[in-house]
Design a protein that fits this description.
This protein is α+β, with helices and mostly antiparallel strands. The chain is built from seven helices and three strands.
Length: 129
């Protein structure tokens, strides 16, 4: 019941649940966790991106069976990554994604469960506006 009321209030004020979470978590979580730091460090070294945005989406998945079995996960299980790099030039989306997944093999062994990837070149970002 409370979830339904909260949902309707969020719609009424045009606030997404993601924005609500980021607003609340930004005041409580001042720094990224060790897994996020490792992701950023490895991908920055490998891809030398002109832009990299990492969003921790783990809170959205804490109720999934696999995450419940881990006690809700460690808070660093699901991430969205947006990466802009010259290294992606002349590579297919599949090749780009394989590069990222290969770089993060250790992190998947340490609890990383899923990634949402947007991998672009500078030219693709400029064309998108």
């Amino acid at each position: 019941m409370l979830g339904i009321r909260l949902s309707s209030l969020l719609r009424q004020f045009n606030i997404s649940s993601t924005r609500l979470y980021s607003m609340s978590s930004s005041s409580t979580t001042l720094s990224p966790g060790p897994l996020e730091n490792a992701i950023r460090e490895k991908l920055t070294t490998l891809l030398q991106p002109t832009s990299i945005t990492i969003t921790n989406d783990s809170w959205q998945h804490r109720h999934h069976t696999a995450m419940r079995e881990q006690g809700g996960g460690n808070g660093e299980t699901h991430f969205s990554l947006q990466i802009v790099s010259k290294v992606f030039e002349k590579k297919t989306t599949m090749q780009r994604h394989r590069m990222v997944y290969s770089a993060l093999t250790d992190e998947f062994g340490e609890g990383l469960h899923a990634l949402t990837l947007k991998t672009k070149t500078e030219a693709e970002m400029e064309a998108a506006g």
